[in-house]
Amino acid sequence: MNLLLDQDVYALTERFLKALGHDVQTASAVGLSTADDSVLLEHAQQQRRIFVTRDRDFGGLIFVRGQGPGVVYLRMTPATIDAVHEELRTVLERYAETDLRKSFVVVEPKRHRYRALGRWRASSPA
User: Fold this and answer.
1) Cα–Cα distance, 75 to 4 (Å, whole number)
2) Mind listing the pLDDT tens digit for each residue in 58-114?
3) In what order do the strands lie in the sheet with 103-108?
4) Which is nearest to 5 in space by CA: 15, 60, 100, 78?
5) Could you tell me the pTM of the whole model?
6) Which of 35, 50, 109, 126 registers the highest number of CB atoms within 10 A of its CB?
7) CA 14, CA 95: separation in Å to the nearest integer?
8) CA-atom Rg of the chain in angstroms
9) CB 121 within 8 A of CB 114
10) Whether the predicted pLDDT of 126 surpasses 60
């Protein structure tokens, strides 16, 4: 998948995603480390990348304003990074890139919520 990582995403997460074989860009690498949220989403959309962040404010931009390429919101701290990475792997294996476009996915330890077209789906371990 083609991903753009917000400046708040851990470098460990960047390495994790690259190790899984994803095409990863960071906001800082493309000169957007201090850019406004709208600019970040516009860049991700123009580059056909899904935006990955730890900033919960992007839901409003995606669904209220109808802006953006799709967002994966990582609810993690340094203490939960491994569990969130495992759930993130599940999300990236379960959903096609086209499914993640125009969606908002919240990834937490051992579960995620996927919202697209006005509906939520929750997933937890069986």
Assistant:
1) 17
2) 766 666 666 567 899 999 999 999 999 999 999 999 999 999 987 889 999 999 999
3) 23-26, 2-5, 50-53, 71-74, 103-108, 111-116, 119-123
4) 15
5) 0.88
6) 50
7) 19
8) 13
9) yes
10) no
Instruction: Annotate 21-60 with three-state secondary structure.
Output: CCEEEECCCCCCCCCCHHHHHHHHHHCCCEEEECCCCHHH
Distance (Å) of CA 87 to CA 11, 32, 79, 108: 17, 27, 15, 7
Cα 17 to the chain's mean position, in Å? 11
* Structure-token pair, residue 40: 């970040």
Name residue 111's amino acid.
R
Query: CA 101 → CA 35, 61, 90, 105, distances in Å?
Result: 21, 14, 17, 10
Work out the angle between the directed axes of helices 11-19 and 81-94 (0-180°, nearest 10): 40
Question: Which amino acid is present at 123?
Answer: S
Length of the chain in residues, anyone?
126
* Residue ranges per structural domain of the chain: 2-123
Scanning the structure block, which residue is given the tokens 């995620």? 112
Answer for the pair 103, 89: CB distance below 8 angstroms, yes or no: no
